Amino acid sequence: MPFQIYSDRLMRMQPKTVREQVTNQIRDDLLSGRFEAGSMLREIELASRFGVSRGPVRDAFIQLSNEGYLAYQANRGVTVRRPPNPDDRRFITSVRKQIETHVILKGTPHLTDNSLKNVESALDRLKVACDEGKATTIALRDVEFHESILVACGGDDMLGAWRQLCSRMLLTYTRHQDYAHTYREHFEIFTPLSNKDAQSTVEAIVANIQ
């Protein structure tokens, strides 16, 4: 299928390069379950599918491996990571909550108006996704909202480890079928954050991350 078909959908996110467009589409496919867990992804096949050279696909593999969605295995190449088992997922969820709690408690007193505007913009994008009702987009906007909070609270140094945890959780992302409720949960996080109420923000975060 020509890449332009994919590009039309992805331009809503305003990707700047072909590499970003390819990365966005592969990530979307991973979250939607198009690729079987443990399966091998081949550059030449995806390059043909998207109508691009192998370079952007190779770059996408590197980025998505860094994000935690893909794994490189010697003599096998790039494979799709398997979702964590229930015990591992509970542990991952616990660590993610600890990271977000730590950053919010430490950084909330130093929030600026500009940083709060960035969080509010991420919340608005989540609402659009919830209104549209596409689960994979909602999952990505959900994580984007939480990341905007970490950045606003000065948690940049934690982002690498945090993103790896989130990617593992997204492989089994199953939230409310009532997407309006999903938005309300995140609105209830933003409200105390905008008032610089760290403790109430943490309580809303802990209730939200499942």
From TrEMBL:
Keywords: DNA-binding, Transcription, Transcription regulation. The keyword rRNA-binding does not apply. Pfam families: FCD, GntR. It comes from the Bacteria. InterPro entries: GntR_C (IPR011711), TF_FadR/GntR_C (IPR008920), Tscrpt_reg_HTH_GntR (IPR000524), WH-like_DNA-bd_sf (IPR036388), WH_DNA-bd_sf (IPR036390). Coiled coil: none annotated. Residues 16-83 form the HTH gntR-type domain. PANTHER family: GLUCONATE OPERON TRANSCRIPTIONAL REPRESSOR (PTHR43537:SF24), TRANSCRIPTIONAL REGULATOR, GNTR FAMILY (PTHR43537). This is GntR family transcriptional regulator. It comes from Aporhodopirellula aestuarii.
